[in-house]
Amino acid sequence: MSVSIVTGASRGIGLEITRSLLANNSAVVTISRSVSDELRGLQSLQLDIIQGDVADRDISKLAVDTAIAKHGKLDCVILNHGILSPVGRIADLALPHLRDSRGKILMVSSGAATGAYAAWGAYNASKAAMNTLAKTLAGEEKGVVSLAIRPGVVDTGMQEDIRRVGKTHMPPEMHSKFVELHSQGKLVKPQDTARVYANLAISSVNENLSNLSGQFLSWDGEELKDYR
Ligand SMILES: NC(=O)c1ccc[n+]([C@@H]2O[C@H](COP(=O)([O-])OP(=O)(O)OC[C@H]3O[C@@H](n4cnc5c(N)ncnc54)[C@H](OP(=O)(O)O)[C@@H]3O)[C@@H](O)[C@H]2O)c1
């Protein structure tokens, strides 16, 4: 049984990654600041829900300690909640255990990392830094696979927010693009992109996966076709 930590699991992509991992008989420790009814509804012996902010070192430590105390190992950390500085903190806490399991760190990145989207300076920069962190870790930690993966434009609360309040600060044509993707039914379903992260988390590391370490990939790219 594989053991993963998923950050930002109360809704959206993180909730679906958690659902997919549990459906594959994996154990999961989740972190989110609130606990939604959907997440609570997944409750099982294989799920530990930790309520708190990943920015709080004690919360990240509790997640790592819970995985080790209950399951004796940690195979994967999926950094989905999306803010940079706490990302580094939980990665550091988890690394000794990921070295032992020859595990993985999967970062939920974004096209914004390379897209330099207008009005999203801090978001663009934090996702670009996330990609660099994945690359750096791959160089430093040869026994741990580190990947930054963009999930596509996904039908979650984040897109709802963009449609609702994006008009006030985004260029009109950019806002319209997101509104149209939604109205034309072209947003990626959270469960489709989540499956890729979950399948990567439960897969053992083979040579192909090892060779991808450090890269910025797209959930629907050729490199990840075996995990969709
Ligand atoms: N949706 C898209 O189109 C899209 C596109 C590209 C990249 N992404 C990336 O995908 C990831 C997930 O996004 P989403 O669309 O699923 O967004 P979402 O529906 O807004 O979910 C974000 C999740 O992160 C949690 N979270 C946020 N800050 C946290 C913190 N400091 N500590 C613990 N949990 C925290 C939230 O729960 P609480 O509020 O309960 O803490 C929630 O569960 C993000 O990294 C985002 O940048 C999304």
From TrEMBL:
Transmembrane segments: none annotated. Keywords: NADP, Oxidoreductase. The keyword Cytoplasm does not apply. Pfam families: adh_short. InterPro entries: NAD(P)-bd_dom_sf, Sc_DH/Rdtase_CS, SDR_fam. One of its GO terms (molecular function) is oxidoreductase activity, acting on the CH-OH group of donors, NAD or NADP as acceptor. Belongs to the short-chain dehydrogenases/reductases (SDR) family. This is Uncharacterized protein.
